[in-house]
Amino acid sequence: MIPVDEHYIYKVDLVLHKNDKPEIIAQKILMQKQLKWCRKNVDIIENRANKVYKLVVNSPDKNRNLVRRSSKFLKLESTLDKLLEKKKK
């Protein structure tokens, strides 16, 4: 999971409108399906993400293959903190 401040999150209009282009309609339908799947599986997604985070951050030496394939969580968190500090000034 990537750390993101609420300020950078925005809503996407997934309602199909009659003046939408075919490629926009296709994107919206795909995003609707993805959102439905994510909502149905939210507990599994969160549990697995938390487990990966803990394994990568707390015991990277024991999980080298996982660390190699994962995001650099601590660096991402640090970068977000710096960005938020700049924004406060």
Quickly list its features.
mainly alpha, 65% helix, 4 helices, 89 residues
Explain the layout of strands and helices.
Elements: H1 22-40, H2 42-58, H3 64-69, H4 73-88
Provide a descriptive summary of the structure in words.
This protein has helices at 22-40, 42-58, 64-69, 73-88. It is extended, with a radius of gyration of 18 Å. The protein has one domain (11-88). It is mostly helical and 89 residues long. 0% of the residues are buried.
Summary, kept brief:
This protein has 89 residues and is mostly helical.
For the record, the count of structural domains works out to 1
- Treating each run of at least 4 consecutive H or I residues as one helix, how many helices? 4
- Please indicate the percent range of residues in DSSP E strands (runs of 2 or more): under 5%
Order of helices and strands: HHHH
> Helix content range of the residues, please?
55-70%
Q: pLDDT average, as an integer?
A: 93
SSE-based structural type? mainly alpha
Overall morphology: extended
Stretches where pLDDT is under 50 for at least 5 consecutive residues are: none
* Radius of gyration (Å): 18 Å
Largest sheet: none
Strand runs, count: 0
